[in-house]
Write a structure and sequence with these properties.
It is an enzyme of class 6 (ligase). Belongs to the PurK/PurT family. The protein is built from twelve helices and 17 strands. It is α+β, with helices and mostly antiparallel strands. The protein folds into three domains: 85 residues, Rossmann fold; 63 residues, 2-Layer Sandwich (Dna Ligase, domain 1); 202 residues, ATP-grasp fold, B domain (D-amino Acid Aminotransferase, Chain A, domain 1), CATH 3.30.470.20. The radius of gyration is 21 Å and the shape is globular. The site of magnesium ion has 3 residues, from strand 14.
């Protein structure tokens, strides 16, 4: 892979252009990072009013499997990435025939399927030292019956569809074998995994960037608080978790990326469980083959963000070791923030929020606020952790955000 230098122009007079599949907020923040460096950008996204499409030099409005759209993307861009992990693997394969694509179809395919993902984590466990939760695959009625008879140890558990799950969707909590059968039917009898419900004491994630040449950099683990299966708060500061645990999580995430031969930004999510040890036990949950909501604080608290590293990795530029210069807390802003207690539409009190010191507001340009929809995030930075927490609490109260007791 020869590097694509920002601001360069090829023999045909075309400016160095980076492409992204998907027009959501992750694509938008990728576009911002690429443009800041001087690249032109192209977004392939069917929706006419997408967060990324609205800010990109080029918006190719087509489906992810439309050959004409893909040909146009390949023609316009020198390298292509994805912000949307459910992009068809065939799409990435097709594009890879014409241009460097990072991450590859093969690794995105693994991350798209919980069965393959868990198999990969199991292979990595020898090196990473971190396993996934006990689980069983359920793809057929015979497998369901076998699990009902032989795997009582997995109950209570969570039945998760192998594909297309996000923000807790495609998941049913089950306590008994009867509930398990009903849940599998409710999910349409599709390929699933039944995972043992673990007593979580915390959750964390690690962002890793790896280049075409195998160079790897990573951020310190961040601690994440979910409310109703959706990320609500990310703590990215000293003392967010025991240091021994942070080191283990970071090492495990790096070894998972290396083992995949990954190119780009990878986020690995972990559970922390009470195993009687001082720091707690670490269990790997899942991975996202792209920047991640839990890494948004890197935009304001680090000297290189997860999106900067995504740009560097795909373009074959060196990967600078990121340095976090400020403690940070990120608060997710879901559609709820635009509604009052009686369901009426309201405008959040931005003047009050933005007058708080160290607040960084990111809205994604989505026009209609809906409950559960990720509309933006607010990152709070400051000189010390105590001050950041105080401001984050004030902002959460002003915005009526959940998870206040977790800040
Ligand atoms: P996202 O894509 O938003 O990260 P997802 O829909 O892929 O989420 P998971 O990460 O598998 O789903 O689960 C969502 C949340 O549900 C987890 O962050 C955790 O809070 C809880 N959860 C999932 N699996 C388990 C488990 N085995 N034991 C206890 N809690 C769990
Ligand atoms: Mg998750």
């Amino acid at each position: 892979m020869s590097p694509i230098y920002p601001g360069s122009v090829d023999a045909a007079g075309q400016r160095a252009t980076l492409g992204v599949l998907g027009g959501g907020q992750l694509g938008r923040m990728f576009v911002h990072a690429a443009q800041r460096l001087g690249y032109f950008t192209a977004v392939l996204e069917p929706d006419a009013q997408s967060p990324a499409g609205l800010v990109s030099h080029h918006h190719i409005q087509s489906g992810y499997d439309d050959p004409a759209g893909l040909a146009q993307l390949a023609q316009r861009c020198q390298a292509i990435t994805t912000e949307f992990e459910n992009v068809p693997a065939q799409t990435l394969q097709t594009l890879a025939l014409a241009r460097p694509v990072a991450p590859s179809a093969a690794v995105v395919g693994i991350a798209q399927n919980r069965i393959e993902e868990k198999a990969h984590f199991t292979v990595c466990a020898d090196v990473s030292g971190v396993s996934c939760a006990p689980y069983a695959v359920i793809e057929t009625p015979d497998q369901l019956r076998a699990v009902q008879v032989e795997r009582a140890d997995l109950l209570p558990g969570i039945l998760k569809t192998a594909r297309m799950g996000y923000d807790g969707k495609g998941q049913v909590r089950v306590r008994t074998t009867v509930e398990l059968a009903a849940a599998w039917a409710e999910l349409g009898g599709v390929a699933c995994v039944l995972e043992k419900m673990l007593p979580l004491t915390a959750e964390c994630s690690v962002l890793v960037a790896r280049g075409w040449d195998g160079q790897v950099v990573s951020f310190a683990p961040q601690r994440n608080v979910h409310v109703d299966g959706i990320l609500a708060v990310t703590h990215a500061h000293e003392g967010n978790m025991p240091p021994a645990l942070a080191t283990r999580a970071r090492d495990a995430a790096v070894s998972i990326a290396q083992h995949l031969g990954y190119v780009g930004v990878l986020c690995v999510e972990f559970f922390v469980v009470d195993d009687g040890s001082e720091s707690g036990g670490l269990v790997v949950n899942e991975m996202a083959p792209r920047p991640h909501n839990s890494g948004h604080y890197t935009l304001d608290a680090c000297d290189a963000s997860q999106f900067d590293l995504q740009v560097h990795a795909m373009a074959g530029l060196p990967l600078p070791k990121p340095r976090q210069h400020s403690p940070a807390i990120m608060l997710n802003l879901l559609g709820e923030v635009w509604f009052d207690a009686s369901g009426g539409r309201r405008e959040p009190d931005w003047p009050a929020v933005l007058s708080l010191p160290g607040t960084h507001l990111h809205l994604y340009g989505k026009l209609d606020a809906r409950v559960g929809r990720k509309m933006g995030h607010l990152t709070i930075t400051g000189p010390d952790v105590a001050g950041v927490k105080t401001v984050a609490r004030s902002a959460a109260v002003l915005l009526g955000l959940p998870g206040l007791d977790a800040i």
